Structures are given as C-alpha cells and as structure tokens.
Amino acid sequence: MDKTPISMRKHVTILGDTNVGKSTLFNSILGQERSIVSEHRGTTTDPVIKAMELIPFGPIALIDTGGLDDVSQVGKARVKRTIEILDRTDFAIYAADIISFDDMKYREVVLRLNEKGIPHMLVFTKCDRVSRSIQENLRSRYKKAVFTSQEDTESIAELKQRLAAELKKLGDGEEPLIGDLLPANSTVIAVVSIDTGAPKGRLILPQVQFMRDCLDHGIKCLVIREEELREALLELKKIDLVVTDSQKFKSVDKIVPDEIPLTSFSMLFARQKGDIDLLIEGAKKIENLPDNAKVLIVEGCTHNATHEDIGRVKIPTLLKRYTGLDIQFDFYGGYDFPEELSDYHMVIHCGGCMLNKKAVESRLLKCEIKGIPVTNYGVLLAYLNGILERCSRIFKV
Fold it and tell me: What is the pLDDT of residue 397?
C-alpha cells in the first residue's frame, strides 16, 4: 500500500475556515504529526499531501489545506491554491469548529462541491468544548455529520470508518489499463524505448503500471526494445496486442502486421483517466488550426527538457511540419493549469500517469465547456502518423 503511486490513490481533501482544526484533524487521521498545529490563524500555507492506508478501504492521498476565509494578501493566494485542489479531489471533508459553525458558509462550500461532483462529509471539531445539549441539537440538524475532538480517539476512529465506507461507494481504485480490453491468458508485446528520458536502471511509470496491470489480470507480457520486435513477432504464435511508446508509432507500425492490434501506453492512459473518444475527435481538429494558432501543451509531471523531450520538442516540431503553420506554444507542468483557456485553439495533454483520474477529468471538462479541442500525446502522434484508426481499434471491441 505504501508504494502505491499518488496518482492511483483516492484524493481526500480537508476544507474549512482558518483555525477550525483542519490540521489537527489531518494529523489525527494520519496518526502522526505532519501538519503544523497552532492557535494562530493561517498556519497552513500551501496544501500538504500525505499518502496513507485507510483501513479497511486501502491507499488514499490525504490533503490539508489553508483556510477558505483568509482575506489577507497572502491569504488570497492560499485560498486560490485550496480551490485548485478541488480539481483533483475525489472526496472532501468539511471541517467546522462546533463553537463557531456558520451554516451559510457551509452551504456555499457544498454548492461549489456539488458543481464539481465532489461528495463530502461534514465533520465538527473541538466537540469537547461544548455542552452535550449543543451537540445533540446539531446532531438532529446534521444527521450524517461526524463529531470529533482531538482527545477522543473513538471519535477519530468513527470518522475513519465512515470515511472508508464513503470511499468504498466511489469504487476501490482506477479502472484497468488493459485488463478489461483483453481476456486472461492473452499475450501482449510491450515495446519500450530506452532514451535520455528514461531514468538509468529503471523504467518510466507508464511502462511499470502497464506491466503490473498485465500481471493483475493474468495477461502474458513480453517486454522488448524496438530492435527485437521483428524477431519476437516471428517467435510468438499468438499476439493479441502490441503496445509501444507513442514516439515509436511510425516505425513500429511498419513492423507490426495490420491484423495485430497496435496502440500506445499514452492512449491506454487516455482511456483510463479521461475520455478517449473526446481526445480522438480533438486530434482531428488540427486540420482546422489557423495560422499563428496558439496551442497549450500540458504535462502532469515536471522535469528538465532534453533534445528528445516529447512535449516540448518533438510534438511542436511534428505539428508545425504536418500543418505547415506558424504555431505558438505555451507549456504547463505538474498540477499547474491556466484559469483562462479562451486564447487557445487547442490543448494537448500528456498521458497523465502522474495525475489522478479526477484531475485529468477536470481539465478535459474545462476544455469541453470552453469548446476548445483537446487531445493527448499518444492520440495526436497516431493521427500525425496516419494510423489513428488502427491504434484506436482496440478500444472499440
């Protein structure tokens, strides 16, 4: 559980005003001191994220945030960071100081959560500081709320049990990468690139997650470089799918017979974390790009760009060559994503292996609402190489 990537964990965010006990609640759920706790308002600045195992549910990412009512100049930036966290939040805990609970503020937050499709739980804190009659009054009004205090370990245990039950309703985890596309005992070939972007002695995360998904679903997986592909095709009697790095689409397509399905790691992630049909339609819209078009390229991770970088070097070069247009590119990395999209003619996103499903879905929805075509690295590269129909065939079985 401790080794489960953050991107594959349900994200649980603790929200509320300053000094209501969010960090205390965060530490209590974790069972350790991770956030600084103070009587002074605004102690938590940037969101604090910690991976943990929530028994009996499983691995989650727990997030502590700054106060929603911080109106100082610095506080406005903190609130902005908190609101941005909602785009990757699967479940929210609204922490409310039982002494100063404001129903109106709570309802405003619930409205925002509902707009984003985020289920939540109301949790009252500092309950040891009020009378039983006050507690009973609130219990009658908010029947699903949880009442806690720092010293009452039973109340924290109840909160964790309730949280696990609510998360269970959302499902145990991510959809499979390949396990629902092929039956058990299928055979796949994974064509892995070893270049300057691959960490020495290790494979990159999409490749590792793909292999793990094969193991989880009883699918046989042969991992090779492109140089061994022809020989592998001759040796294996039955091949149900070839999966390649998107950058190798053109050469791999020439080697793999048309009757053998072909796709990429990036396209598999596009289906798992987003809307593959939306991304396929988005790729086709490059035919409508005007001269001096402005294109946003987004990566879910941050790294130093090299001469082989797919997002910052290869895709811009290929797109300009294909369209013959003078295109302007903006680049965003990690969890940064522009608030205003109307200036862009297209958004091109990475596979999203470092992002949770909620984060990717939120970004795609923003593009849809603005009517801006959005596609994915792998989908776009398949289109630019004229093999998108072939490489998306596996998703239509």
Answer: 59
